[in-house]
Amino acid sequence: MAFNRPGIASMSLGRPWVHDLPCKLMQAAAHGFEGIELFFDDLDCYAHRVFNGDHLEAAKSTRRMCERLGMTIICLQPFSMYEGLIDRSESDRLVNEKLPKWFTLARALGTDMIQVPSNFLGPDPQTGAARTTGDHTVIVRDLQRLADLGAGAGFRFVYEALCWGDHVDTWEASWEVVRDVDRPNFGLCLDSFNIAGRVYADPAAPSGRTPNAAADLAASLNRLRTANIDPAKIFYVQLVDGERLSAPLDEKHPFYVAGNPVRMNWSRNARLFPFEESRGGYLPILDVARVFFEDLGFRGWVSLELFSRTLGETDPFVPADHARRGIDSYNKMAHVLQWDEPAEKITASIPAPESPVQHRL
């Protein structure tokens, strides 16, 4: 039985509306990926291109494609901007209107897991007033509500701290939430980029690092190592690096977007796969990975969730190129950490398309 299984996010193979979902799924399978984190934006794009906006039919078709390709849909994501909302009517709307639709789609996709990123709604752009609360009790209560509804419908939720989250922006904070939600169907996603991106990296600094980067990351990883987290509460992990920018990400930088947290602007443009130092990767991802697999003893889905400006390029070979880069990265990690057999490439069986046409399986 395999130590771990390679997965990749659908968004990591090309931007929706630029590269179609069937092509991306075929390239993921062709390069040896066994699982896919399905982004709703990809499903939405596919629905509008092929099914007149019918998300359910698009979900059914996506499941059939994945079954034919021998791939598992790991989760549907992201169910975002939910926990800790000050506007309680919006919280109720998300639970009463959006969540049942996601249950229907996830069931049609054949997955039992929905990913929830920590809330990064930020302040009201007009008034500057806070739209989320950092009250731990409120956040936990909101997510217990989600978990309890999911348990009745047969679904799990996986919670991930984003390094630019409003209040939950470290693995420690996300683990405290998961621990206190205390539901068997509510678990943790540990992401190397978000862990190192919060305490080690500072894309706004000339050095690209926080003042005590190495020491702070080492301390954080030591806390992770000794936190007594049951590996069963880690539903999957994500391995990804970040690019060391040539200039600080300030108002003059092309990645800058007013109103967005700096780390979010960096994340959306400059993630890399592990071991891509030649492209500018500089985060100590191997140190983070060793804690995941050697100290915590995690075994399961290892997903590569990359966001990058390169995903929006119109070259039809973008999905194939990113799938190749991703599986090369996974196999290097498997070799370094002495996992069992690396993922097998079968690229010859499914060639890259000559143009980004819509496929329908």
The number of domains is 1
Strand order of the largest sheet: 3-2-1-10-7-6-5-4
CATH architectural type: Alpha-Beta Barrel
What is the element string, with H for helices and E for strands? EHEHHEHEHEHEHHEEHEHEH
Oligomer: single chain
Q: Output the CATH topology.
A: TIM Barrel
Q: How does the overall form come out from the CA principal axes?
A: globular
Spans of at least 5 consecutive residues with low confidence: 345-361
Average of per-residue pLDDT values: 94
Give me the CATH superfamily. Divalent-metal-dependent TIM barrel enzymes
Q: What share of the residues lie within helices?
A: 40-55%
The level-1 CATH class: Alpha Beta
Estimated structural class: alpha/beta
Mind summarizing the main beta sheet?
A: 8 strands, parallel
User: What count of helical segments does DSSP give?
Assistant: 11
The value of Rg in angstroms is 20 Å
How much of the sequence lies in strands comes to 5-15%
**Total DSSP E strands:** 10
Please give a structural write-up.
This protein has helices spanning 21-30, 40-50, 55-69, 88-109, 136-153, 171-181, 192-199, 213-225, 262-270, 285-295, 318-336, and strands at residues 5-9, 35-39, 72-77, 113-117, 156-160, 186-191, 234-238, 241-242, 271-272, 301-304. The chain has 361 residues and is an alpha/beta fold. It has one domain (12-340): TIM Barrel, CATH 3.20.20.150. Helix 5 links the parallel strand 4 (113-117) and strand 5 (156-160). The two termini are 30 Å apart. Mean pLDDT is 94; it is low at 345-361. InterPro entries: IolE/XylAMocC-like, Xyl_isomerase-like_sf, Xyl_isomerase-like_TIM-brl. Residues 27-327 form the Xylose isomerase-like TIM barrel domain. It holds the Pfam family AP_endonuc_2.
